[in-house]
Amino acid sequence: MTTVADSVGREGDRIPLSARVYFIKLGEGGAWESLCLAGGTIKFGYHATPHDLCLGRNWEEVKAFWTRERKNAGTASNDTRQIRTYYEASEQDIFITFSKGYLWWCRPKGAPAVLADDDARLRKTVDGWRNTSLAGEPLLISRLSGKLTKTQMYQGTICEVEERSYLLRRLNDEKTPELAAVEATEQVLLAQVLAMVRLLTPVDFELMVELIFSTSGWRRQARTGGTQKTIDLDLLLPSTQERAFVQVKSRTTTSQFDGYADEFAGTDAHARMFYVWHTGTVDRTPPPRVTFWGPDIIAGRVLDAGLLGWLKDRIS
């Protein structure tokens, strides 16, 4: 199974936009999900279906079999469609499913086999199930279009995915022209916001940082500043009772940060430390429980918090 941590794109992996994409439900109520995702297999029901008829592509006989079983030609036709899709899907096709907060996808491989224990069908996959794009971007359900994720509400076992083009673009890490244009404009805006942030006085910069945290629910507990040299903002997140402190620096260096990091390492009064600055470089990987908000982060936080208007007023 390929996971978020170990999935990487390979040159030539691009999935053609002509690929067919199907949603599959791995067992009733997802009963086979863990087994299939871990083993890189695709398990399928319709246990009573004559396997030899399917291998021989005798779909009219399969339909006749299920018509006798269902006593309904329409239902049998839908059954046959799903069975045929499972048996005939090629290595160029994609199966997807939703599990554990992610969209997972795979490419089927080889012919289905009948399992001796329950007569279910099993297919192998080309390289297992993946929950990332080809470049390793996590396919979190919460970050996908609702038009795609509603597919998981399908009441049957297999259906064609309507949002095929959208999904294939996500798997290939391709952006629509509209998104690419927006992101290019956003990069220009972020650079301009950072330039504006650098015009703030140290006091106003600290106030802006406090406002950013307050929009996320953090509450300042006390006035510190000069009274506690290693703490500019002493914060509490009421929903979890988590304590954090923020050290705010307009300009900073690696050696300056190291001093604050040593102080933080020697106390357990706060669960987390945020180190925030807009100019300079900290040539360190953040230590455990320390979060950096440097020049590459702070402008985005301003926009996320809706503080562009506040910032414009401060420097106008």
Rg over CA atoms? 27 Å
Helicity range: 25-40%
Summarize the helix and strand pattern as letters: EHEHHHEEEEHEHHHEEEHEEHH
Number of helices: 11
Query: What is the count of structural domains?
Result: 2
Parts with pLDDT < 50 across at least 5 consecutive residues: 4-11
Strand order of the largest sheet: 8-9-10-11-12
- Give the overall form: elongated
| Distance linking N and C termini | 55 Å
DSSP strand (E) fraction?
15-25%
If you average the pLDDT, what whole number results?
91
State the major sheet: 5 strands, mixed
Which structural class fits the helix and strand makeup? alpha/beta
Number of strands: 12
What does this structure look like?
It contains eleven helices and twelve strands. Helix 3 (59-70) packs across helix 4 and helix 7 crosses helix 10. The protein folds into two domains: 21-171, no CATH class; 178-315, Trna Endonuclease, Chain: A, domain 1 (3-Layer(aba) Sandwich), CATH 3.40.1350. The chain is elongated and about 80 Å long. The strands form three sheets. Strands 8-9-10-11-12 form a five-stranded mixed β-sheet, sandwiched between helices. It has a four-stranded mixed β-sheet with strand order 4-3-1-7, with helices on one face. The protein has a three-stranded antiparallel β-sheet with strand order 2-6-5. It is α/β, with parallel strands linked by helices. The chain has helices at residues 33-39, 51-55, 59-70, 73-88, 146-149, 164-171, 177-197, 202-215, 254-265, 295-304, 308-315; strands at 21-24, 41-44, 94-99, 102-106, 108-114, 121-125, 158-160, 219-223, 233-237, 242-252, 272-280, 290-293. A hairpin with a 4-residue loop joins strand 9 and strand 10 (242-252).
